[in-house]
Amino acid sequence: MNCTDAAEYISALCDGETIPNDAAQHISSCAVCTQARNEYVALGMALWQAAAIELAEEPLPALLPKHENRIALWWRKGWEQMRIPRVAFAMLVLCLVLVGTRLAMVEVGAQATGTATKITVDLGAGMKSSPCYLQGGEGSHATVCGFVGKRASDQKTIGYEIKLNGFDGKRFRLAIRAEVIPPADLAKSLNETLKPLPMQDVWFVPGKKANLQFADGLALTLQGEWAEHVPPYMVGMGNPRLDPNADELRISSPLLLRDKAEVGDLEGAGTNSLGTNTRIVLYYPKAGLLMLSLGEFPGAVKATVRDNRVSFTVDGHEYTLINAAPVTRAEHIWVARKQDYKPSEQLKSGFLANPYEKDMGRFLNP
Amino acid sequence: MIDDAELWNKIVAGDRQAFECWYRQSAPRLRVFLRHTFAGGPAADDVLQETYAQAWRSRQGFDAVRGSLAAWLFGIARKQAATWRRRQKPEEELEWEPSIPDGAERSSMVTDALSRLSEEGRTLLWLREVEGQSYQELSAILDLPLTTVRSRLHAAREAMRKLWQCTESRREP
Q: Are residues B31 and B44 in contact, defined by beta-carbon separation less than 8 angstroms?
């Protein structure tokens, strides 16, 4: 592959299209091609800016009815035969046009307010990821999304990671990598699994779908909408309310106390499980691994739930798990502690996860 | 926010108010597109009005399976622009000038470079970069095969890059 052969693919790469591996390798290692790619991206940005300036400055003409020509004729007749001062009439018309224009501009502007976007990824076969919020602008902390889920149709586990690399007021520049996760990698962290993969660049516009292709024929569709802010602890699978669903167990930003002293804090982490046959797993380096479920499971003790707190006693110690939001509608859940759990190197600082029950054995014994 | 499908169902049912709502939402972008790819001034506004008149007449013909509402609208606009051009007498042919309001110098430089491309090049670049249309949508709007969309989009980008480089180099002392 040389620059001439790769040239057409540079453009396709900018558009998030799938390109051959050898072309991608050449472009990433060739200074000339990389320069061309950067210039294409800059051109796109410049065009966008030009459009944005005009959209902001141009008032919209009123939508004319079908009999436009007849109305134009009446207008001319009326103007010629006018009995009131023409300047006064013109001012009146101008005022009406300005009021109409203002209303139109407010309505159009309402489509693109905010600096955040709520993104959902269609994983194919009717499966969608839980929503994720990204926020542009300086000092934003909502810049990364990750998701792992299993498709019911073919039992394949799909994982993706999205990083927010820019925001120009209208579009979000995202870098995305995804794959069908091999069974052997299910015990690894998502970051560890996806790390060797290249990131795809895409400009994401809320309200528009972005179709992306990855290795092994994996096709994902990003869709989203504008959001004025990122809701705190967005942990509900499509349930943005504070009240959990009837069969939902939510863990959000959990702080663990043992005998009233703090032993670990997974601040900002959140997940949920649905039903009595699923477990949420938390690991604190100083407290070991905890498993939580709405249903009873071997080795578990009964824990008491009060709003955002889960209290239980294990191995002679009193534990309280304090969450950022209500945990469940139930009064009790089930908790077990696994003392001999040894996390992988990447996970040893602590984690919160919601693995499939089928994969739990492999997850607990990496 | 009402989504495309909900709004369009109302329009298909003959809801004129919903149609005007859609016009206010979509027309500003379409007009800027027409001004940069087809013609500036009143001609662009004429085609804009014709486009929405046609969209109203053929509202039953939109099929969401075949593409987005925006792609369908831009497709109509292209056809209306072509019809408008055919109707002009030779002496009325447009001296095409991009319509550029006051703005950043960089913006006028880039729109100036854009104006030097072929109409197809301008359309492809604008729809891809500004409107974010997919290759499939571009293929439908311009009646081009997908592979041709990719190659011509590349050609347009490359041509514009060279033009832009010339403009930038002229500015340097």
A: yes
- Both tokens of B120, joined, read 């197809």
Q: How far is CA A302 from CA A234, A255, B4, B117, in A?
A: 27, 19, 49, 72
Residue A14: name the closest of B106, B138, B129 by CA.
B129
Report whether B111 contacts A50 (CB < 8 A): yes
Q: How far apart are CA A242 and CA A238, in angstroms?
A: 12
Q: Is A192 exposed, middle or buried (0-12, 13-18, 19+ CB in 10 A)?
A: middle
Give A149-183 pLDDT, tens digit per residue.
777 778 788 889 998 988 888 888 899 999 998 87
Q: Is the predicted ipTM greater than 0.90, yes or no?
A: no
- The tokens describing A22, both together, are 């050898």
Q: Which of B23, B111, B157 sits opposite A11 (nearest CB)?
A: B157
Can you give the pLDDT at residue A259? 93
Q: Given A43, A104, A209, which is nearest B161 (Cβ)?
A: A43
For residue range A185-209, what is the model confidence (pLDDT) as tens digits?
776 667 778 888 888 888 898 888 8
Tell me the whole-structure pTM to 2 decimals.
Answer: 0.43
What are the pLDDT digits (tens) for A281-329? 999 999 999 999 999 999 999 999 998 899 999 989 999 999 888 899 8
Of B1, B19, B24, the CB nearest to A60: B24
* CA A116 to each of CA A24, A136, A145, B26: distance values in angstroms, whole numbers, following the listed order: 31, 6, 13, 22
- On chain B, the residues whose CB falls within 8 A of the CB of A54 are 32, 35, 99-101, 103
Instruction: Count residue pairs from A and B with Cβ separation < 8 A.
Output: 121
Of A66-80, A95-109, A111-125, B110-124, least confident by mean pLDDT is A95-109
